[in-house]
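Form 7-S
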Amino acid sequence: MFCFVAAFAQNKPVILPAEFSNHVRLADSLMMAGNYSQAANNYRKAFTNYNGKGPVPDRLNAARAYAISGQSDDAIATLQLLCETQRFFDHSLLQKDKAFEGLRSDPRFDQALKCIRASQEKHAPKYNPELRDQLLSLIKTDQDARRAFEIAVKNKKALNDVAARMHTIDSANTAFVSDLLDKHGWPDKYTVDFTGCNALFLIIQHAPLETQKKYLPMLQQAAKTLDIPPPNLALLSDRISVRENGTQLYGTQITISPSGEKLPFPITDEAGVNKRRKEIGLPPLEDYLKMLGIHYVPKQ
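Output:
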C-alpha cells in the first residue's frame, strides 16, 4: 500500500481544492434531500472557486440542480460545457433524465444534445451504451440492497434476510465485473461514460478482499486517466488496508466504538494524513469528518 501511494504521487493526480470539494459534498447532500435550489447555489460556488473547472460528474449534477430549480440558462450553459470537454457523450442519458424534463421544449437543449452527439461520433466511436446501462442496472441493485439493509438495521426487522440478499447481489455483481475485466480489461470513460466507470468502482468497493486487491492496479490506471476520480483510490486503498490489518492511510473508513461513538479506524502515520489526502485530491480529514458529525483535532 505504501508503494501505491508513492507511485501515485509521482503521477501528479488532479488535486481538487478543499473548498471546491466541500461545496460539492454539501451540494450532493442537498440534492439527495431534495433541496435543489440550495444545491445549485453550492455547485455554483464550487465551480466559481475553482475558476470554472471541475470533474465532469460534478458538472452533470450541477446541470441537474440548475434544471430542476428552474435555472434554465445555467443548466443549458453547463450542458454546453459538458459537450465542449469532449469527455461526456451520453446524450441518451440526458434525453431520459427526468431532471431535464423542463428543458425539453427549449431549442438550446436540443442544440446541446446535438453537440454532445457529434462529440461522441468524433471522439468516442467505441461508446457502448448497452454495457453502460447494464453496469448502471447492477449498481442500482447494489444501492437498493444497501438502502434496504440500512432500513432493516434502523427498524431491527428481518436483518438476516436482508443481509443475505445483499450478499447474493454483491456476489452476482462481482462475478459479472470480474468476467468483464478479465476478458476485456477496464472499459474507460469513452466506452461506458463516467457513470459506468463509477458503477465498476462501486461494485469492486463492495467485493471480497481478494477481488479488491486483484483489480487495484486497474483502478490505479483508471485514476491516472481520470476514468474515475483519483480520491476513489483512497477509499479502496483504506478499505483493503482496514480489512487486512485494521489500519488505514487516508481516514476514509469509519467505525463505531463500543460506546456508540463514530470515529475513523486507526490511521497509520496520523500526523501525515492530511498531506496524503491532499496528494490524492481529498479535503483535510477534519473537514471530511465534520460533515459526518465527528469532531477531529489534527495530529501534529
